[in-house]
Amino acid sequence: MTDTHQVQERHYLSTGSDWTFELLETYDREIARIAALYKLDTYPNQIEIITAEQMMDAYSSVGMPIGYNHWSYGKQFLQTQKNYQRGQMGLAYEIVINSNPCIAYLMEENSMPMQALVIAHACYGHNSFFKGNYLFRTWTDAGSIIDYLLFAKNYVRQCEERYGQEEVEQILDACHALQNFGVDRYRRPKPISAAEERARLEERENILQQQINDLWRTLPASPKEASQKKGRRKFPEEPQENILYFLEKNAPLLAPWQRELIRIVRKISQYFYPQRQTQVMNEGWATFWHYTLLNHLYDDGLVTDGFMMEFLSSHSNVVFQPGYDASYYNGINPYALGFNMFRDIKRICEEPTDEDRDWFPDIAGSDWLETLHFAMRNFKDESFIQQFLSPKLMREFHLFSIYDDDEKNQYEVEAIHNEAGYRRLREMLARQYDLSVREPNIQITHVEIEDDRSLTLRHTMQNDTPLSSDVHEVMKHLHLLWGFDIHLETFKGERLIKRQSCPDTRVS
Amino acid sequence: MSYIIDRRLNGKNKSTVNRQRFLRRYQKHIKEAVTGAVNKRSITDMERGEQISIPTRSTHEPIITHGPGGKQHRVFPGNKEFQAGDLLDKPESGGGGGGSGKASNQGDGEDEFSFYISKEEFLNYLFDDLALPNMIKKNLSQSKEFKTRRAGFVSEGTPNNLSVVKSLRNAHARRIGMTVGKRRKLKELNAALTALDPQPEDSREEVISLRLQIEEIEKKLKTVPFLDDLDLRYRSQVKVPMPSSKAVMFCVMDVSGSMTQDIKDIAKRFYILLYLFLQKSYEHIELVFIRHHTSAKEVDEQEFFYSRETGGTIVSSALKMMQDIIAERYNSDEWNIYAAQASDGDNWDDDSPQCAELLSQQLLPQVQYFAYIEITPNQHQALWESYTGLLKQYPHHFAMSQIRTAADIYPVFRELFAKERYQEAV
């Protein structure tokens, strides 16, 4: 609890556990007031009350309020429904969407304290993160996503009407298989706008097709030009890591509407790209703020002890971290790690120890709120951990790092939470959140333009890690989109160690 | 600034379309699962949904990820006793172990993705593509039967439909309504009269006038009718065309010594299917079980399937009995008659032509459909040969097929009732 606040005379906002729309407004107003004190800058909130069934629907469409139809969402739904009906899982209390206004779903089953928790967590925690973090600012456009999703849904539906459900499904399946390879990592994409998309749709279709025709032109333009190009034309000139983008622009046989479908999957994947890189920070930030804001409410004498008991009980469930040997251990809990890191930063600012001064000379003793906002704005999980994980927290989590070499029959404990291990441990944990380590490095290196039009990809192994067996299936999808042979070459360093092809899976 | 919106009344079935697409995509798997379930379930047990399991491999959406292996560093929480440099043995199973790193969520692909389909969906998959032959013959459009149904109350009708309670209630209300003013007046006059304390022969002018007035009002009150035409209410009955919704299913089975319990079980499953299928098409179904060896007997279901008999086989006895029962109880104008005969093919040689004759002359003209299944792994016998002729004569009413093992039931059932046959029949 924030002990700087004197417990004042109490005027409870509510005492029962039932919520009403008036109470939601009251709580929201109070939480907003407090959030402003902590300089949380948010998009306007759109709080929507939904039922459990609707929550299951929302779950199955990756949390998006509108999505095009696809069987995989049906699969997701069946899974969610089964787990929920069997009581194997509770539904999340909330889903929040990075949009402007920021849409948050609240379940009607929640009690008043839970609704307040969710409002603080989603509408002020996540919301301010979406608005402030550099990744979201750079890569997503909160203002237009809902419009774009609607555009996408309608476009997919029109395609289904015109070209048949199965044709469309085939393309979408293939795109989904490659969706993690459909993001620009280094270049900020243009903001998406549904209106513009529509307007430019036709224009783009024509231009695109022209460019492709140009690339695949088989008649030499003039004898002179042809002779100049006799030297092998290299295409693409640079290796391409955005595979979907490359296919959209260059696949020889696709119709314009198929390219547009690729574009849709690519754009949506791009939209989720920041979320995949900021899970610990995003959840940690939101959890830190629901904790701080609701405690502030309590200190202001606005909520009852019972309210706090219920809130704290679910809060401590959320931030519980079981040990690696617990039967329900399921990786490091991002809520727990993030929440504790933000709390720890605050502590380092307010009451630094000698160790902290040693490790964090820049922030020890600084203004905690400034520092917290700075951390939220300018980092992603990997760099956040690398920068801010303190020895004290590593000790509290009892972290240790295991080295697993598939050529040895023993694991090695390479670092534990002690003086010798802190830096190594922190580095290893940070790497665990690095997308470029988590995801295989695959790039398009060569297209045989003047011969069989085959497409060659290069997989550069990291830490000698092979690709999962899924890759055969993915190559089939790739082949469907490209239309000609696909070769995948795996390199260990500079040495080619494996070459797979589709069709014809000769392994050499 | 926040807006709070109540979305609870919005549709909750946003996922329906996606769910259907999933079911359509895995139709093949679901049908297999349904077929398997039919083989396992008992006759009373068809009316529920089913859990469908599909190998995760088939529903898996491939993406490019790292596989197991290589040189990995992983950080875990909750260290108790490890020191840097400790070596730990890897679990025996090799690749699969190794804690819960990135690789662990890629199992061997052997587990199953399972979900439930509802009872309706179950039966729909079961009966997919099926339609009974000649069903059209007695469908709604040609229905000759009507049934009457209550349709509230009306003010005109025949005396036999008079609703006494409703009518009297109306009359009561009307009487109260029509006399309320007069009765109030009467009460006042009576009170005034009592106030004057009148004698029987009182000749005071006020008393006489009051008494006259009272008499007048009482007379008027009496003229209000106890029951008026207005009050009468009749029960309304409307005639609705009744679909010919009755079917009778004859189960005919040989129970002679040569029929083992295994064969009977196979036959039973065939009857289950037929029964369920009819149940879907008709409101009311009766079952008649006829078993026979050298003589036929109508029995109940339990006895039909599970009592043991020995002896020879005369199939015609059962067919004759069926003919008698139809004549007695199931007029073919009113009933849709289906019959399924199961046998191992044994029959007295002399009897087989007689059976064919009985069927072609008497039974087949009356029934919607007669299915003969021969459950035997062996060569066809005399009965089959005799029945073959009927196929040409009544291609739309008669079908026969051979079942060798339990697994054949469903394909044969489908074959017997295949849609093509239905279309030919139309």
Protein architecture, described:
The complex is a heterodimer of chains A (508) and B (426). Chain A is an alpha/beta fold and 508 residues long. Among the domains of chain A are: 21-133 and 278-314, no CATH class; 319-436, no CATH class; 438-502, no CATH class. In chain A, 53% of the residues lie in helices and 11% in strands. Chain A has helices spanning 21-37, 52-60, 71-85, 112-132, 134-139, 145-163, 165-177, 194-215, 223-228, 243-250, 256-277, 279-299, 305-318, 334-350, 354-359, 368-378, 381-388, 391-397, 422-432, 435-438, 471-482, and strands at residues 45-50, 94-97, 102-107, 400-405, 410-416, 441-447, 455-460, 486-492, 495-502. A 4-stranded mixed β-sheet of chain A has the order 6-7-8-9. Chain A has a 3-stranded mixed β-sheet with strand order 1-3-2. Chain A has a two-stranded antiparallel sheet with strand order 4-5. In chain A, a hairpin with a 7-residue loop joins strand 6 and strand 7. In chain A, helix 6 crosses helix 7 and helix 7 (165-177) runs parallel beside helix 11 (256-277). The radius of gyration of chain A is 26 Å and the shape is globular. Chain B folds into 3 domains: 14-59 and 111-128, no CATH class; 159-236; 245-425, Rossmann fold, CATH 3.40.50. Chain B is built from 13 helices and 13 strands. Chain B is flat, with a radius of gyration of 39 Å. Chains A and B meet through helix 1, strand 1, helix 2, helix 3 and helix 7 of A and strand 1, helix 1, strand 3, strand 4 and strand 5 of B. Strand 5 (410-416) of chain A pairs antiparallel with strand 4 of chain B.
At CATH level 2, the architecture of the largest domain in chain B is 3-Layer(aba) Sandwich
Overall pLDDT of chain B, averaged? 77
- State the helicity of chain B in percent bands: 25-40%
Count of alpha and pi helical runs of chain B = 13
The chain-level mean pLDDT of chain A equals 86
Determine the most extensive contact between two protein chains: A-B, 100 and 65 residues
CATH topology of the largest domain in chain B: Rossmann fold
DSSP summary: helix tally of chain A: 21
User: How far apart lie the N and C ends of chain B?
Assistant: 67 Å
Oligomeric status of the shown chains? heterodimer
The gross shape of chain B turns out to be flat
Strand content of chain A: 5-15%
CATH class of the largest domain in chain B: Alpha Beta
Described by strand count, sense and barrel closure, the largest sheet of chain B is: 6 strands, mixed
**What Rg of chain B is obtained from the alpha carbons, in whole angstroms?**
39 Å
